[in-house]
Amino acid sequence: MIFYRANYPSGKLNWHIIQAVSLVAISYEILSGKGGVKAWTYHYNITPNMNWDTARQWCRDHFTDMVAIQNQKEIKYLNDVLPSNPNYYWIGIRKINDRWTWVGTNKTLKKEAENWAPGEPNNKGRAQDCVEIYIKRSSHASKWNDERCTRQKGALCFQASCTASSCTAWGECIETIGNYTCDCYPGFKGPRCEYAMECENLHPPHHGTMNCSHLFGPFQFNSSCDFGCNQGFVMAGSGLLQCQASGQWTTDSPTCQAVKCNALNTPKRAILNCTHPLEDNSFNSTCEIGCEKGFSLSGPNRLQCTARGQWIGQMPTCKAVKCEALSIPSHGSMDCAHPIEKFSYNSGCWFGCKEGFLLNGTNSTQCTSQGRWSAQTPACQAVKCEALSIPSHGSMDCKHPIEKFSYNSGCWFGCKEGFLLNGTNSTQCTSQGRWSAQTPACQALKCQSLKTPIRGVMNCSHPFGDYRFNSSCEMGCEEGFIMRGSDILQCNASGLWTEPLPTCQGEKGSCRPRRRGGVLETTNPSSSFAVRRSWGGQETCSHCSSFAAGDRGEVRRPAPHCSTLKCQSLKTPIRGVMNCSHPFGDYRFNSSCEMGCEEGFIMRGSDILQCNASGLWTEPLPTCQVVECPPLPISSAVEMNCSHPIGYFSFLSSCYFSCAEGSKLNGTNRLHCTSDGQWTGTIPSCAAQVMSTGMALLLYTGVGSGAAVLLLLLGGFVFLIVKRLARQSKEISILMNSAVLEECANPAYDGI
Ligand SMILES: *[C@@H]1O[C@H](CO)[C@@H](O)[C@H](O)[C@H]1NC(C)=O
Ligand SMILES: *[C@@H]1O[C@H](CO)[C@@H](O)[C@H](O)[C@H]1NC(C)=O
Ligand SMILES: *[C@@H]1O[C@H](CO)[C@@H](O)[C@H](O)[C@H]1NC(C)=O
Ligand SMILES: *[C@@H]1O[C@H](CO)[C@@H](O)[C@H](O)[C@H]1NC(C)=O
Ligand SMILES: *[C@@H]1O[C@H](CO)[C@@H](O)[C@H](O)[C@H]1NC(C)=O
Ligand SMILES: *[C@@H]1O[C@H](CO)[C@@H](O)[C@H](O)[C@H]1NC(C)=O
Ligand SMILES: *[C@@H]1O[C@H](CO)[C@@H](O)[C@H](O)[C@H]1NC(C)=O
Ligand SMILES: *[C@@H]1O[C@H](CO)[C@@H](O)[C@H](O)[C@H]1NC(C)=O
Ligand SMILES: *[C@@H]1O[C@H](CO)[C@@H](O)[C@H](O)[C@H]1NC(C)=O
Ligand SMILES: *[C@@H]1O[C@H](CO)[C@@H](O)[C@H](O)[C@H]1NC(C)=O
Ligand SMILES: *[C@@H]1O[C@H](CO)[C@@H](O)[C@H](O)[C@H]1NC(C)=O
Ligand SMILES: *[C@@H]1O[C@H](CO)[C@@H](O)[C@H](O)[C@H]1NC(C)=O
C-alpha cells in the first residue's frame, strides 16, 4: 500500500536516521504481517510546540521531512496513534504562490487528496498559509485546517525507507508505510527495476536482413531493429521495430515478399512451362516457352522475372512451320488448303492431271510439323499406248507431241509397192491409252487365181499368199502337148499377171476330145480336134491341125480358120511412107506398121502402129505436115511476088524480088523455103541507079519490049499455075497425094 510517493534522485538525498531521544516513534506496520517490511515511521514532538518552519526544520534535522498525507487510511492511522495535543500538529502542506503545495515534493495538492475540515481553508485572520491536522479533536477529527505559520504546534515527521540504492535508475523509490517499493519506469521491471522489459526474440525475415541495436539488452526495452529485404524482395510491413515498454514490439515483424512480375499471357500456339521457386510470376520465376506441334518459336525460349519485377526478354511468338512452296505439275492441277498459313504446317495439296495424263505419285501431300511435305509433288505422265511396230511390207510415220507412243501420238501407215493397206491409214493414242485404230496390215495385191491349163502342169511359188504379188507360176505341158504362150507367169505390182495363161495344145493327130475338170472341151466336126476354151473372158481359138508336128514348144503357123482379129486397113498417109509386117495376115492381130514422111514434111503422131488383141490399132494414123518457113515481111522498098505451092510460106514456097524503075536490086532476086524450114538467103534491097536519059530510054524500050514478050509468056504460065494451085491447095487441105507431090517437085517449075 502506497501512501507517499516521492522522487529521490540518487545521491541527492542523504538520509540520516536519527533516533528519537525523548520522543515517541510510531511505526506504521501495515505490511509487517507480510514479512518484515522496513517501516515508514512517524515521529512527533510536542515538547515544545513549534512554529511551522521550526517544526519542519526539526523534522528534517531528525528524520526525513514533515509528514505528507495523501489518503484517509494514513489520516485515520495518525489520528489513532498520536497523542492528543491541544495545539494539534503541523503537516507538510503550505501555501506557496497561492497554491497549497506539498513541501516535500513541491507538488500541488490535488483536489481529490484534500481533507479540509468543513469551511476550511478559510484563511481566517489572514496569512493562514500553513496546515494543521485536528488529531483527536471532538469534532472534525483528523481534518485539516489552515493556520498561521507562526503558531506553536506539534511537529509531525516521517522517516523514509528509500535509499539511493533502493531502486535502480529505471524506477522511482516509493515510500510505503514502514518500507519502500520501486516503481519502475515504463520499460523496466524487477524489485529494483533492474530489468528492462523483454520483447520476444526477433529473427531476420526470410530473404531479408535484420540489424538490431540493444540499448539495455537483447530484444529488451528500447531495442530497435532495422529490417531489410534481399534483392528481388520487397518488404511488407514496417522496416523498423522497437521494443516498447509493454514488452511488445511496435508492430509485427515485416516479411520479405518476392517482387512480382506481370502475369504472362500465353501467346497463341505456345506452351509455357513456368517454375515459380518463390511465388507465382515473381522474382526468379522462369518460364520455358515452347510451341505446339507444327509451330516454331520466334524469340527467346526462356523468360525470367528479374529482381526489378520485369521479365527478361520479349515474349516470343509461335509461327507455323513452313514447307517449301509447291507449284502446279505440268499437265496437271493442284488444289491446296492452308488452314494456318500458306504452305505451312497442316497445309494440304491435292493433285490431278489433265485428260490424257496419269498421276505418278500420291495424289495428295501434307506439310508436316517438320516442315517437310509428306509426299513429293507427283508428275503427270502422258498416258502410254502400246508401242507400234512397222507393219511388214509397209511404212510407218509417227508424231509424238508429248512422249513416244503416248497420249496424242499419231501414226500414219503406208505400204510398199505391190501391197495394199488393209485397215485405216492412221491411228491415234487416246486418253484411255488405247489406239484409235489397229495397226493395219499390208496385203500383197491379188492376181486372178490361175488354173492349171488342160494337159498342162503348173508349179507356183507364193511368197505373199496364193496368187498374190510376186507369186510366180511355172507352166509346163504334158507329154505330147506343146505350150502356146509364156511358161512363166508372175503376179506384178498392179495385181496382174505378166503374161496370159498359156495353153497346151496337142500335136497334130494326137488331140482327143474329152471332158476334163469341168472345162468344156468341144470338138469341131468340120475340122480335126478343135479346143475352145474360155480364159480370162477372152476367146482363144486353136486347132489341132493348125500346128505342125514338131518339137515341143515350137509354135507353127496358126490354123487358117482360127483367124486373128482384124484391124482397119491402113492407107499410107499423104506425103508419107508406110512399112508393115503382118504375122497373122494383113492388118490383123500383131500386124505392125512403121510410118515415115517425105522430105519437107514432119510427122504428127506415133511412127509405129500395132494391131492389138482387141483388133484396134495401138495408135491413131499419123499425118505428114509440111515444114513452114518464117513469113517474109512485105516492104514498099522492094517488090515481092511469092508463090506457095503447098502452104503459106512453107516448104517449096518461093518469092521473087524486083525494084522500081531507076533503082537496082542489091542481092538475090529469088528466095525459096527449104525442107529445113529455112529461106535460101536474105531479103534483097533496092539501090538508086544513075544513067543518061538516052541510055535510060533505050534501056527502057529494050527492056520494055523484052518485058512484054516475057509478060505474055508468063501470063500463060501463071494462069496454069494458079489453076493448079487452086486445085492443089484444095487437096492439101484434105489429103496430100503423090501426084501433087510429083507436080510440086517438077523441076521445070523450079527452073522458071
Ligand atoms: C522493505 O522492502 C524491501 C524491498 O521490498 C525488502 O527487501 C525488505 O525486506 C523490507 N523490509 C522490511 C523490514 O520489511
Ligand atoms: C517549488 O515549486 C515552485 C513553483 O512551483 C518553485 O518556485 C520552487 O522553487 C520550488 N522549490 C523547490 C525547493 O524545488
Ligand atoms: C546496423 O546499424 C548500425 C547503426 O545504424 C550500423 O552502423 C551498422 O553498420 C548496421 N549493421 C549492418 C550489418 O547493417
Ligand atoms: C528510449 O529510447 C528513446 C528513443 O530512443 C529515448 O528517448 C528514451 O530516453 C530512451 N529511454 C531510456 C530509458 O533510455
Ligand atoms: C517443365 O520444366 C521442368 C523443368 O525444366 C521439367 O521437368 C518438366 O518436365 C517440364 N514440364 C513440361 C510439361 O514440359
Ligand atoms: C535466384 O536465382 C539465382 C540464379 O538462379 C540463384 O542464384 C538465387 O539463389 C535465386 N534466388 C532466390 C532467392 O531463390
Ligand atoms: C514414276 O516416276 C518415277 C520417278 O520418276 C519412275 O521411276 C517410275 O517409273 C514412274 N512410274 C510410272 C508408272 O511411270
Ligand atoms: C487419292 O488416292 C487415294 C488412294 O491412293 C484414293 O482413295 C482417293 O480417292 C484419291 N483421291 C482423289 C481425290 O483422287
Ligand atoms: C483385211 O483383213 C481382215 C482381217 O485380217 C480380213 O478379214 C479382210 O478380208 C481383209 N480385207 C481385205 C480387203 O483384204
Ligand atoms: C488416209 O485415208 C483417208 C480416207 O480413209 C484419206 O482421205 C487420206 O488421204 C489418207 N491419207 C493418206 C496419207 O493416205
Ligand atoms: C516346183 O519348183 C520348185 C522350185 O523351182 C522345185 O523345187 C519343185 O520341185 C517344183 N515342183 C514340181 C512338182 O515340179
Ligand atoms: C518381188 O520379186 C522381185 C523379182 O523376183 C524381187 O526383186 C522383189 O524384191 C520382190 N519383192 C518383194 C517385196 O519381195
From TrEMBL:
Q: Which InterPro entries match?
A: C-type_lectin-like, C-type_lectin-like/link_sf, C-type_lectin_CS, Compl-Cell_Adhes-Reg, CTDL_fold, EGF, Selectin_CTLD, Selectin_superfamily
According to the entry, what is the taxonomic lineage of the organism? Eukaryota, Metazoa, Chordata, Craniata, Vertebrata
The primary site where this protein sits is membrane
> Which keywords accompany this UniProt record?
Calcium, Cell adhesion, Cell membrane, Disulfide bond, EGF-like domain, Glycoprotein, Lectin, Membrane, Metal-binding, Repeat, Signal, Sushi, Transmembrane, Transmembrane helix
* Limits of the C-type lectin domain: 37-158
Q: What does this protein do?
A: Cell-surface glycoprotein having a role in immunoadhesion. Mediates in the adhesion of blood neutrophils in cytokine-activated endothelium through interaction with SELPLG/PSGL1. May have a role in capillary morphogenesis.
- SMART domains of this UniProt entry? CCP (SM00032), CLECT (SM00034)
Q: Where in the cell is it found?
A: Cell membrane
Supply the name of the protein.
Answer: E-selectin
Membrane-crossing residue ranges in chain numbering = 697-722
Name all Sushi domain ranges. 197-258, 259-320, 321-382, 383-444, 445-506, 565-626, 627-688
CDD domains according to UniProt: CCP (cd00033), CLECT_selectins_like (cd03592), EGF_CA (cd00054)
Protein family per UniProt: Belongs to the selectin/LECAM family.
Domain named EGF-like: residues = 158-194
On the tree of life, the source organism's domain of life is Eukaryota
Q: Subunit structure, briefly?
A: Interacts with SELPLG/PSGL1 and PODXL2 through the sialyl Lewis X epitope. SELPLG sulfation appears not to be required for this interaction.
Indicate the secretion signal residues.
none
What membrane topology was assigned to this protein in its record? Answer: Single-pass type I membrane protein
Q: Which organism is it from?
A: Huso huso
Q: Name one Pfam family in it.
A: Lectin_C
- PANTHER family (UniProt xref): COMPLEMENT COMPONENT-RELATED SUSHI DOMAIN-CONTAINING, E-SELECTIN
